[in-house]
Amino acid sequence: TQEAATTGTGKGSSGETVTLQTYQSNGTYYLYDTSKPMDGIIRTYTANQGSSLPGNYVTDADNNFQSSNQAAAVDAHYFAGLTYDYYYDTHGRNSYDNNGSDLISTVHYGSNFNNAFWNGSQMVYGDGDGSTFSPLSGSLDVVAHELTHAVTDTTANLVYQDQPGALNESMSDVFAVIVEAENGDFDWQLGEDIYTPGTPGDALRSLENPELYDQPSHMDDYYNTSADNGGVHTNSGIPNKAFYYIANDIGLDKSGDIYYRALTSYLTSQSDFEDARNALLQSAEDLYGANSTEYQAVSDGYAAVGIG
Length: 308
Ligand SMILES: O=C(O)[C@H](CCc1ccccc1)CC1(C(=O)N[C@@H](Cc2c[nH]c3ccccc23)C(=O)O)CCCC1
Ligand SMILES: [Ca+2]
Ligand SMILES: [Zn+2]
What we know:
This protein is of the alpha+beta class. 39% of the residues lie in helices and 17% in strands.
């Protein structure tokens, strides 16, 4: 059979044309990227509105994935590549497990499914119902959020419950902001590109102002609930706000290095917000010294949200 790695093009949900790393076999082109270092492979599927995973490969006859029903797959494939590049180029991490595991994404999951998730093995994206959400792979911060769950699961492995769970959530929001910024699209919001397509300017969450979307930004307002694994998507506002203060002080690059070191070297499955402060302080000391402005920024940021 005739086979080769190829470079194609595609149109994402934003309408922009992007370059895609594809694979050609017997005249059919696949969203199958073998171009990453140490042969990290990125492969993208469609569930065709079903729920069996991973579903079917997304293919095209002429290596130009430009039809509207391919846009969600183009985004998932392209944004997974950008997120792979961030972790490899910035932190030397080869895929989410630092062992070159494939990045598998499935789009068109379910019917009008208003959500996305990492299921322990792959990323999964719903199409949204068109009013609350448009297809959820259409936002780089959402893709980076999901892939960072995989990084967390293979490192700190923060339990998805209560404070460790809110910290897990916050780590995904933190690196979502950083990955978007690294790609020239900096903002403090999460999901702005896919949330309520009819309402410009809003988002799912704000790290600058968590209260905008009903999240606390201080320990005094910690939300005790049994819902959502102890409010992991609500209480993440507190560590998210701490990150906002820290990154505003010392910048996203240094913050990213401190957060990556804390996530991969110090945090463990039951770490709570206090443990996060200590892990981030230790990481800042390791990287910049105990009397550094970076160390002080972490201390100030956590104090400002009522921790430490
Ligand atoms: O990765 C996560 O933390 C979220 C995973 C949610 C999920 C978990 C297990 C099975 C299905 C879905 C997905 C995202 C999330 O934050 N979801 C929130 C907000 C949300 C999205 N769609 C919703 C529909 C109803 C209520 C809340 C939501 C949630 O599930 O709470 C992350 C970025 C965007 C979507
Ligand atoms: Ca964003
Ligand atoms: Zn999450």
